[in-house]
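Tip: read the tokens left to right.
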């Protein structure tokens, strides 16, 4: 009898946790945040220009060529299988991968699109969920409801601004052949784009009022990275590397630029 009661309690606990996760995902308010810089003077060996942040890791072109503005950013990446950090118990952990315009040296707006990936552990049960979204910060993200994702899918993302207050987002699942596109507008006159930054980012994003517990995402490599201005196209050569530093001061990522069109982000 004691064993039966224990088993029933465990089943109820698992179902309660998973129901809570399902409710959270159904009602989530997901948002990115401009880069939150941290002071950490020690340079890493893999780059000459490294900065640290509590929420972004990746590569950023921090200024367009003289007299120009960025009006497009694109890249591809493979959706990872996230995992809980070592030593974790039950709970949920998430991260996102996206490309975007602005949000670093110009923080009034970000036009961005990408995917979130979440791992949830409850006892011996582990589940995964994935969301594709677009966002014009400071508005919250909007999920693509008709764009299924799975680990291992190769995703191509392009954001393009037709003016400082209007743009388009195109996302394609190169594995399934599914694609979506949407026209977007600045949420207010104070959130027009400046076209000063182009970025390829893994983020510890915000959801329902706080930063999510950060998932171990393994390795995410952005390929075919391009940033455009009205008159030229650039790769990631000369990009600033951004590393995420955790609350305990530990650097959680290792970012490199393997080629002029790649940004590699490794969870450490």
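Filled-in amino acids:
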């Amino acid at each position: 009898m004691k064993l039966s009661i224990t088993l029933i309690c465990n089943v109820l606990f698992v179902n309660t946790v998973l129901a809570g996760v399902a409710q959270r995902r159904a009602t989530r308010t997901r948002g990115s945040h401009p880069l939150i810089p941290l002071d950490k003077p020690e340079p890493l060996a893999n780059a000459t220009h490294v900065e640290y942040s509590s929420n972004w890791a990746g590569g950023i072109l921090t200024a367009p060529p003289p007299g120009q503005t960025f009006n497009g950013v694109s890249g591809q990446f493979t959706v990872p299988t996230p995992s809980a950090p070592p030593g974790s118990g039950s709970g949920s952990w998430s991260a996102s991968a996206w490309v975007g315009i602005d949000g670093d040296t110009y923080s009034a707006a970000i036009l961005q699109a990408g995917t979130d990936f979440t791992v949830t552990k409850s006892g011996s049960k582990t589940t995964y969920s994935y969301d594709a979204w677009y966002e014009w910060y400071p508005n919250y993200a909007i999920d693509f409801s008709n764009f299924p994702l799975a680990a291992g899918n190769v995703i191509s993302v392009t954001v393009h601004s037709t003016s400082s207050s209007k743009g388009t987002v195109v996302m394609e699942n190169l594995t399934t052949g599914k694609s979506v596109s949407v026209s977007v507008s600045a949420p207010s006159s104070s959130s027009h784009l400046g076209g000063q930054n182009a970025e390829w980012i893994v983020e510890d994003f915000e959801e329902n009022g706080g930063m999510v517990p950060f998932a171990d995402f393994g390795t995410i490599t952005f390929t075919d990275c391009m940033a455009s201005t009205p008159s030229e196209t650039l790769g990631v050569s000369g990009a600033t590397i951004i590393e995420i530093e955790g609350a305990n001061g530990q650097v959680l990522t290792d970012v490199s630029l393997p080629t002029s069109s790649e940004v590699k982000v490794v969870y450490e």
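Residues 1-27 have pLDDT under 50 and may be disordered. The two ends are 46 Å apart (CA to CA).
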